[in-house]
Structure formats: C-alpha cells, structure tokens
Amino acid sequence: MAAGGGLSRSERKAAERVRRLREEQQRERLRQVSRILRKAATERSAEEGRLLAESEDLVTELQGRSRRREGLKRRQEEVCDDPEELRRKVQELAGAVRNAKYLVVYTGAGISTRPINPRL
C-alpha cells in the first residue's frame, strides 16, 4: 500500500486487470450459454446441460431477453383485419371521436396545427 492508505499504481493496475478479466469471462460465459440455448434440447451434450444447470441466472436472463425480443417483433407485424372487423373498429373509433370533449391526434410531419372546429 502507498503512503496515506491508498493503493499504489501497480496495485490499481493489477486490480483493473483482474476486473477486466472477470468481465471478459462473464461475457464468454454468456456467449456459451446463448449458443447452447439456440440448440434443441435433444442436441445438447451432457457437458452443455451441466453448464446450463450451473448458470441458471444467465439462462433466465437470456430467456427473458428472447421473450421480450419476440414480443417486440410481434408488435411490429402488420395486422390485416377482415373487412367486418375493420368496419367494427372504424365505427368504434368514429363514436369515440364524436363523443370526445377534447380530441388530440398524434400525427407525422405536414399536418396543420390549427385547431379545427368540427361544428363548421
């Protein structure tokens, strides 16, 4: 230890190397677990099964990430309703617009910001 109770430069460098090495090992473990999870369960070796069992927290995290990613993909898919369902949704929207005391519409560029009086 250096005078004054702090770590010496060489001790700080050694601690930083240990920290970086630990982070790299964690990233590599994450990559391994991710690769194994992409395989079908029947295609995994006993060693891979052991690694998954030892890494329950990583497995849980990666499965959660996968579920969130799939959910985002599903939300981005275009939905094409059949004509009757579309008609029902349009009528519901029209009723909500008619009955609204105040109406706010979020749009893209190019729409006028002037208030519109529907009674005119």
From TrEMBL:
InterPro entries: DHS-like_NAD/FAD-binding_dom. It comes from the Eukaryota. SUPFAM superfamilies: DHS-like NAD/FAD-binding domain. Transmembrane segments: none annotated. This is Sirtuin 7. Residues 1-24, 59-84 are annotated as: Disordered. Residues 9-24 have a biased composition (Basic and acidic residues).
